[in-house]
Design goal:
Shape: globular
Structural class: alpha/beta
CATH topology of the largest domain: TIM Barrel
Number of strands: 11
Domain LysM: 225-268
Order of helices and strands: EHHEEHEHEHEHEEEHEHHEHHH
Number of helices: 12
CATH class of the largest domain: Alpha Beta
Family: Belongs to the glycosyl hydrolase 25 family.
Keywords: Glycosidase, Hydrolase
Helix content: 25-40%
Radius of gyration: 21 Å
CATH superfamily of the largest domain: Glycosidases
Number of domains: 2
Strand order of the largest sheet: 1-2-4-5-6-7-8-9
Organism: Sporolactobacillus terrae
Distance between the termini: 34 Å
GO molecular function, one term: lysozyme activity
Largest sheet: 8 strands, mixed, barrel
């Protein structure tokens, strides 16, 4: 079937300005997955301040509304308590579609059997309250290494994040970017492609789920030997634009951090006498968003970093976050610059 476009949002988008859901719909987006809660009522007790209004706005514009809960559980009983907190928020809003469990926190148990059981308990509690359209969100690597897919109950819709040209596995929904531009919403937005019309509350299109999801490929121009940095450039963006691995650019130019300056000339190709390539570090559990995150940055990626560092997760990269990042970099033998580039991100996640 035709790929279905959707967004996922939280209060961060509202903080940049009112969302015009009619413009979102007119741009071809069909569904919105909206953040509701985190933790349990006796624990974190976090309710996204824009949850209800975002659901109302999406519904009014004709987008199918879904909701998600950020999972923090430490036991099966805690998972059920988290589900009850989520249910309380759902009852106050008119969510039309699926309810997702966002499973991505690094500090969750590394025992696959236990974490799978916790997710199942969360889904059971939702089903008992009448919320039978259940889904699970996670990064590709996290989902494949921390959960046992064959033991997941409640027939979950699988929503996978991977910011690449290919997802590389079966999924119902693919979050393929965290920095898209969407008409009607100010700033970066998470965007998704669904391969089943379940997201539109229709019948499942199972043949679509069996396909390995791929974005259309664009023709690439020949890679130049060098590149002169322009204002606003980042290494990852330069690499993506010119078809050169981000880590290779760093190694070719002897860069010890992700910091580059306007006017700086970067080598993009190795000399004829090729040195032995160093081993590149493994993939992050949560996909690297593709841009530097530093003092002054705001949003979901900053909140993820703050959670991983164990500090107040307000989504604003200020003095406290800067100090925590530098301390973390020092402890882990990284370049201490307070900037979260790909190397620091991969170590965190």
């Amino acid at each position: 079937m035709t790929e279905i476009k959707g967004i996922d949002i939280s209060h961060y988008q509202n903080e940049r300005g009112a969302i015009d859901f009619d413009k979102v719909k007119a741009a071809g987006y069909k569904f919105a997955i909206i953040k509701a809660t985190e933790g349990s009522e006796s624990g974190t007790a976090y309710l996204d301040e824009s949850f209800k209004s975002n659901v109302e706005g999406a519904n009014k514009a004709g987008l199918v509304s879904h909701a998600y809960h950020f999972f923090r559980t430490v036991s099966e009983a805690d998972a059920r308590a988290e589900a009850q907190w989520f249910i309380k928020a759902l009852k106050a809003a008119d969510v039309k579609g699926y309810v997702f469990c966002d499973v991505e926190l690094k500090s969750l148990t590394t025992d696959e059997e236990k974490l799978t059981a916790y997710v199942n308990a969360f889904g059971d509690e939702l089903a008992a309250a009448g919320y039978t359209r259940f889904g699970i969100y996670s990064g590709k690597y996290y989902f494949e290494s921390r959960l046992i897919e064959l033991k997941l109950l409640n027939s979950p819709l699988i929503w996978i994040a991977r910011y690449n040209s290919i997802l590389g596995r079966n999924a119902d929904v693919w979050q393929h970017s965290s920095s898209a531009s969407v008409p009607g919403i100010a700033g970066d937005v998470d965007v998704n492609i669904a391969y089943t019309d379940k997201v539109l509350l229709g019948k499942a299109s199972e043949p679509s789920k069996s396909k390995v999801s791929t974005k259309p490929k664009e023709k690439k121009a020949a890679t130049p030997d060098t590149y002169t940095v322009k204002a606003g450039d980042t290494l990852s963006e330069i690499g993506a634009k010119l078809g050169v691995n981000y880590q290779d650019i760093k190694k070719l130019n002897g860069l010890k951090s992700d910091l580059i300056l306007p006017g700086q000339k970067l080598k993009l190709k190795k000399s004829a006498a090729k040195p032995k390539a160093p081993k590149i570090s493994g993939s992050a559990v949560v996909p690297y968003p593709g841009h530097l995150i530093k003092k002054g940055s705001k949003g979901k990626d900053v909140e993820r970093i703050q959670r991983a560092l164990g500090i107040n997760a307000d989504g604003i990269f200020g003095k406290q976050t800067d100090a925590a990042v530098k301390a973390y970099q020092k402890r882990h033998g990284l370049i201490v610059d307070g900037i979260v580039g790909q190397e620091t991100w991969n170590t965190l996640f």
